[in-house]
Predict the structure of Putative ABC transporter permease protein.
Amino acid sequence: MTVLGVYRPGSTPLHRMPPGIKLVALAAMILTISLTVRSLLSLAVAAGCVAAVYALARVGPLTAWRQLRPMLWMLVLIFVFQTIFTGWERAVIVCGVLVTSMALATVVTLTTRTTDTLDALTRAMNPLRRFGFPVDHLAMALALTIRAIPLMVEVVREVDEARKARGLRPGPRILVAPIVIAALRTAEGFADTLTARGLD
């Protein structure tokens, strides 16, 4: 189980599209969804467009579900909070915007190699070098971030499986504390690696 996808080789139009164009299109689509989805009807239209993108990339529903499933517990919390304070319809819209945005990001990573993505970002930031901007450091930070996401999802899965094995109910003490501790340990490991390479 992964989040933000693991590259799947293919020959679809989305696979052949240059990474830079995909990233710009991704940002534009997420921004458009965030600004225009204000009703259940517009949310349904946005979901239909995302489904069309998945069909274009030849990513099946089961694969899409596996990528988005780790978000479920977070969505439940957001839905409950929004329902209490703004009503169920607003809660559906907020969660729908989050799901469609994450789905778009996922389909991009499923059809784009991580190295190609980082190369595209580095090339886009190259003009900033003349102003002393640490492009290489930022590219490494992005690489570490991308690497950390599946690691943390795996931690969430392991903690949840341990909870189920012990017959415990989900709760902040059972889930959040172990996940936070694991996240801190992962960050410490990354920091030690960077320090060892003289990038402290």
In short: Residues 114-200 form one domain. The mean pLDDT is 82. Residues 135-165 form the longest helix (31 residues). The radius of gyration is 19 Å.
